[in-house]
Write a structure and sequence with these properties.
The protein has 137 residues and is of the alpha+beta class. It is built from one helix and nine strands; from the N terminus they run αβββββββββ. The strands form two sheets. Strands 2, 3, 5, 6 and 8 form a five-stranded antiparallel sheet that branches. Strands 1-9-4-7 form a four-stranded antiparallel sheet, with no helix packed on it.
Length: 137
């Protein structure tokens, strides 16, 4: 009788472990943060820079978290590198470090869609500068 009880406990433990592992793989809680490092050079026309495309894998809030910058910068997510097409609204005039949440525009934001982080200087007159940080779609 003790042996049957012990076998049941082992089976329950294994089934519980299997459920936990399956749940973690089916329901990831956040998209992985990606890093970026941009060098933005004048002139203003043509100064838009973009990261590589990243697939959105969860329903978490998109964000950008840049380092400080001497030049204020606008950020947004786009479905295409080097494009001014916005998948999110702009976060504008950012020159200090810290996380800023982005908001998807209508028609964007679904999981398994690909986005890149795009940035350009807030001012039309600027000198070459660099900014880096993390972001997630």
């Amino acid at each position: 009788m003790w042996l049957k009880s012990s076998k049941k406990s082992i089976v329950r433990l294994l089934l519980t472990g299997l459920i936990v592992v399956t749940s973690l793989s089916l329901f990831p809680n956040t998209s992985s943060a990606a890093s970026f490092s941009f060098t933005i050079s004048p002139p203003f026309a043509g100064s838009l820079v973009s990261s590589s495309l990243v697939t959105k894998t969860s329903t978490s809030t998109p964000y950008v978290s840049p380092s400080h910058s001497a030049t204020p910068t606008h950020y947004f997510l786009s479905p295409q590198r080097g494009s001014s097409t916005q998948a999110t609204g702009l976060v504008t005039n950012i020159s200090t470090a810290g996380r800023r949440n982005l908001s998807y525009l209508s028609g964007y934001g679904g999981t398994n869609q690909r986005y890149c982080l795009s940035a350009y200087p807030s001012n039309t007159s600027f000198v070459r500068y660099s900014v880096s940080g993390t972001w997630a779609p």
